[in-house]
Amino acid sequence: MRFKTSHTIRLVIQCGAFFALLTGCTWFTSSSDAEPPQGAELYWPTEGWRTAAPEQQGMDSEILASMLARIQTRRYGIDSVTIVRNGHIVADAAVYPYRLGSVHAIHSCTKSIVSALVGIAIAAGDIEGIQQPVTGFFPARSVANLDSRKEQLTLKHLLTMTSGLECRDSYLHHWEGLERMQASEDWVQYVLDLPMGEPPGSKFEYCNGAS
Prior knowledge:
Layout: H1 19-23, E1 50-51, H2 61-74, E2 80-85, E3 88-94, H3 109-123, H4 148-151, H5 155-159, H6 176-183, H7 187-193
Parallel strand pairs: 1-3
Antiparallel strand pairs: 2-3
């Protein structure tokens, strides 16, 4: 089967509106058994994902086709669908008028990826922990608006969007701060120089610059 398509949002990343489909993956299976089919070879896709027919991985292709048709006809605003089962791609379709391979701005997934990378760095011993002060990572930089509150800013505050920085880059501010950061020559320096609006950890405030 062939579907006209859009920007690829992979279920395995659990991004955006597609998280609901990921958590409901058992709905697509022809069996309640979540284990790989007997004799299936387990692997890690270092060179790329392997492909398989849905039935080979315990899924029903007719149900998947019905889902894709429903996405197309009801215009749910989903760009594309990639479903991975037991390490194999069993469905990869884009929703008209988009095409597979198109890039897509996923924004908030950055937070999940960055937090995973920080965890890996901590496990590897490259970072001591999330309680480390942010300014300590940039000893060679001169930081503007430096006060006691900014000195208390830690990785945890950045990861939890409780930095206290006056980012002004959410919808509440019409992404004013985000546009200014993007226009700056040095994004890191721009964020480090931001004034503090609140003590770190005292208030949640969405901040793209924190990532």
